[in-house]
Structure formats: structure tokens, C-alpha cells
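Please check this:
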Amino acid sequence: MAQFKLIKGDITTMHVDAIVNAANTALSGGGGVDGAIHRAAGPQLDEACRKLNGCPTGEAKVTPGFNLPAKFVIHTPGPIWHGGHSNEAQLLRNSYVNSLKRAVENGCQTVAFPSISTGVYDYPLDQAAKIAIDAIKTFEAPLDVTMVAFDSGTYDAYEAELNQQK
């Protein structure tokens, strides 16, 4: 079972084996955490992502971390919120599970996640936190996983969900 912890911080500064990027399907770098990771990793990340020819929603692909303290970046496009009637919950769960699978395949022991799809993709934070925590805690591998909340609202939503699960 994966171990889970929650912190407030900047995912681009995490000293872990892999950080997860809440990417777009083109893997082209965008706003929010995606843009921050691309800027911190340097232009080599853009070049590496272009060679991957995109990534479907819910899947995950891996690149080196380049200028980041993390060895790898695991890119996963989460779903855009369309009211909850377009398989969003399963796609979001798939983003977490497939990212964890890529971490194991690449020999990672420590992984840091952002809150996937809760920024510009507008996924409701309370629902996303429940899916993320459940997907990570039930993943059958001995990984140390850190959820890195960029702001207080995200941190509070994940902390509330963790407290509900106790």
C-alpha cells in the first residue's frame, strides 16, 4: 500500500524520484502547475514532451526531470469537469493510478502529486480530493506519496477529506 502525506508547497522544488504534472493532452506546457513545471525543468522538457506525441486523458507518460530536483516527470492529463456526467471520476482516478504505475515501472520510491484537474479544468476540489486520496492509498505498491497543495484552499480540502477517512 502506498503511504500518503499532505503538504503545502511548490511541487517544482520537491526532492523526490518523480513529480506528477497535471498536463494537457498535447503535453505542451500550459498554465498553473503544468507551466511551472515546464519553466523549472527548462527547455529540454518541451523537447522531450514533443517526442511523446501527446497523451490521452487519464493516461500517463514519463520524461526526465532535467533541471528539476526530481529525476522524472510523470505527465497525466486529468479530465475537464463537465458536470460529472462524462466519466470524469473514472478518468481522474485513472490519472492517479496510471501515474503511480509509471512511477513503479521507473523504479521510483517517492512521488509528489499536485491536485489534478482542480485548477483551470474546474474539477470540484472536494470530489477530486476524495478520488485522489482513495486512488493513492489503495495502490498496491510500497511508494511514499506526497500531495503538494499549492494554496490553502487545496490544502484544506485534502485535509478535510483525510480527516473524514479517519
About this structure: The CA atoms of residues 125 and 154 lie 7 Å apart. Residues 3-165 form a domain with the Leucine Aminopeptidase, subunit E; domain 1 fold (CATH 3.40.220.10).
